[in-house]
């Protein structure tokens, strides 16, 4: 994470290659090493799907370190980033790759209502593979119990 207060661009987490998730003007952006490129649509954060390619604990740990580095309150960035919408976007893609990454994250997800809704969509989706539906059903039972 680097603060560049001259441009107002604060890199938070590497998404992939040269793309970063960061803050500029109090908003989330996808950007390069040097500057923000496009504002993240919090309702449809497609550009943040690459976060799911990393283990959830690693992403959360990196965000908490960023909070300490810039003096933000504990949990601020974790609450500010729309993880529920990222997971919903992965499921809405109907692509097995993103769905399985979302399922990996849902195994450790704490927002029960979001998780159960997404798991139900996968479990009953005609487009989902048998493996995805089975994993979803298994996780649904864990959230119910």
What does this protein look like?
The protein is α+β, with helices and mostly antiparallel strands and 145 residues long. It contains 6 helices and 5 strands. The protein has helices at 56-70, 76-80, 83-92, 96-106, 112-123, 130-144; strands spanning 2-4, 9-16, 19-24, 27-31, 36-39. α3 (83-92) runs antiparallel to α4 (96-106), α3 runs parallel beside α5 (112-123) and α4 (96-106) runs parallel beside α6 (130-144).
The total count of helices amounts to 6
Mean pLDDT: 91
Order of helices and strands: EEEEEHHHHHH
Within the largest sheet, what's the order of strands?
Answer: 1-2-3-4-5
Decide which structural class fits the backbone: alpha+beta
Domains, number: 1
Give the helix level as a range of percent.
Answer: 40-55%
Q: What characterizes the major β-sheet?
A: 5 strands, antiparallel
Number of strands: 5
Low-confidence stretches: 1-6
Please state the CA-atom Rg, rounded to the nearest Å: 16 Å
Which overall shape is indicated by the principal axes computed on the Cα atoms? globular
CA(first)-CA(last) distance: 39 Å
Query: What fraction of the residues are assigned to beta strands by DSSP?
Result: 15-25%
């Amino acid at each position: 994470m680097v603060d560049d207060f001259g441009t107002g661009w604060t890199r938070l987490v590497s998404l992939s290659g040269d793309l970063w998730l960061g803050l500029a003007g109090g908003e989330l952006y996808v950007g390069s090493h040097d500057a923000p490129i496009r504002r993240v649509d919090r309702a449809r954060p497609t550009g943040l799907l690459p976060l799911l390619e990393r283990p959830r604990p690693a992403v959360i740990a990196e965000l908490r370190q960023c909070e300490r580095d810039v003096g933000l309150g504990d949990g601020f960035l974790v609450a500010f980033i729309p993880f529920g919408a990222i997971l919903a976007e992965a499921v809405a893609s109907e692509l097995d790759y993103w769905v399985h990454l979302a399922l990996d994250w849902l195994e450790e997800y704490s927002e029960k209502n979001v998780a159960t809704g997404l798991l139900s969509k996968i479990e009953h989706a005609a487009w989902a593979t048998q493996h995805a539906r089975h994993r979803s059903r298994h996780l649904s039972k864990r959230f119910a119990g």
